[in-house]
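Bench notes, afternoon.
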Amino acid sequence: MRVPIEQLLKSPESKTLEFKRDLSSPQNMLKTIIAFANSAGGTLMIGVADKNQKIVGVANPLNEEERLCNLISDSIEPRLVPNIEVISHKKKTMLAAEVYPSGTRPHWLKAEGPLEGVYVRLGSTNRKADRALVEELKRSSSGTSFDEMPMPTLKKDALDIRKARELFKGIRLLKEKDLLTLKLLTKEQGGLVPTVGGMLLFGIDRELHFADAWVQCARFEGTTKSTILDHIEIHEHLPLAVEQAIAFVRKHSMRGADLSNIRRRDVWNIPPAIAREAIINAVVHADYSQQGAPIRVAIYDDRVEIENPGILLPGLTLEDVFQGISKLRNKVIGRVFRELGLIEQWGSGIRRIFNEVRRLGLPEPSIEEIGMRLRFTLYLTPRKMQRAKDSNGTADQVSDQVAGVGTGEVAGVGIGEVAGAGTPQVTPQGTPQVAPQVTPQVRRLIACIDGAMNRNELMKALELIDRMHFSREYLYPALQAGLVEMTIPEKPNSPKQQYRLTEAGRNLAKHISKEVKQ
C-alpha cells in the first residue's frame, strides 16, 4: 500500500478513503470502488467501522478476499482489477482494496448499465453521474477536451472574428491559419467549422448553444444572500467577461491606508491579484457541458465566493490542487487566454493565490466540490489600517494615477508577466537590433497607439473597462520602459493628459507590424 495503515486509520473518510465493517452491503461497496476508479482513485478498508473507525476485523479474510474479487469481476464493467491485500494490525485482520484512477473510465455497475450505473466521488460520498459527466469521463480518458470538439452544424461565420482580431491586435493577425492553430476553427468534412472553444470564446450566438456560459456577479449585505446590494449579468465574449467580472469586484473593494510606516501604503480589503486569478481560473476550468447555472462571483462582508460548473478532473484531488497540481479542462480557452496575457503558465494560478494570501496574512482560502460545482472562497479579515477618507468622509475610490498599485496585489508581477522579469530596457536612439522583451499587454498597447491618445481612448481601443488593471499592466510598464511618454509630463494628473509613442516605442511598433505581416 502507498499509505501506511496507521495513517489511514487516523484519517477521516474522504474523496480517496472509505471504511466498511464487512461485505454485507456489496452494492454500496461496489459503487465506492467504481467511484474511486472514475475519479482520483482511493482505498476501501474492510473490517473497520465507518462511524468510529474502530477495527473490528474480518473473520475469514481469505474467503472474503476471494468473494470481493468475484464481486468486482462479476459486477463492474469495463473490467477493473484493484490491488487487494490482507492486512494485520493490532491482532486484527482487515482487507484493503486499493483502486487507481482508471484509464478505461467510465466504469459502471452491470446491473444498472453504462448510462445509469456510473458513479464518481464527491467528498466522502458517491454520486451518480449524469449523461454530461459520463461524456466528460470518456473525453478525459481519451485526452480530448470538450472545447476542442467540432460543431459541425455551424459555419465559420458563427464566430465574431472582428472582435477576436481586435483583442489579438499586436499579437496575431488571426488569419485562417491562426484560427486553426488556436483551434477556434477546425476542419470537418472538407470544410471549416467552429470548435466548442471557438464558440465559447467568440461565438456570436454563444448562449443559443451554451445557455449557462456567462458570468453572474452579486454583492450581498452582511454574510448571507438575504439582501442584494448590487448585481450584474455578464454576457460578453469570455475574455471581456473576465475583465468585467474583475471590475465588479474592484468596484466593491474598499481601499484604506496603512500609515504604520513612514510612507503610506494602499491596502485593499479584497486583494485585486487574488480575485483576478480566481476569476480567470473559474472561467478557464469551468465545465461548459454542464447545465444548470453560470459562473458566479458572490461578495459578502467577510468573504468572496467564486463558483464554476464542473468537479475536479479525474485523477485530481483537492490536496493536489492545494499543492499547485493542475490539469487543464479547456485547452482552447487556456491557449487563447495565455496568448492574450491573461494567464502566465499552466497550474501557477492557485499557487500564486496561496503565496499572496500568506504574504497578506489572510486566512487560507477553501476549495470545495459542492454538488457538481467547484467553489473557491477567499476569507476577508479586518487589517490594522487607517481608512483613507476623501473630502466627503467616504472611503477612497480606485486611484486613476498610474503608480497607484495597492499592497493587496502581487508585488511587481502582473498576471500576464513572467515572474522575475525586470523592467524591459529600450535604447531610445536608433532602431534596436533585437525587439525589447515586453509583456503581451504592452505589445497590445504599443500596437494600438495612433498619435496622441488619452486614457479613455486607449482603454476603448483595447476593449478594457478596469482603469487600475489598464494602468498596472499596460500603461505603467510602457512608461517605465520608455516606450510611451506623456504629452504634459509636468502635470501627470492633468485631465488633458495624453500619451504617445517615444522613438523606441515607434521602433517597437514597426517591429510588431512586421511580425504580424510575416
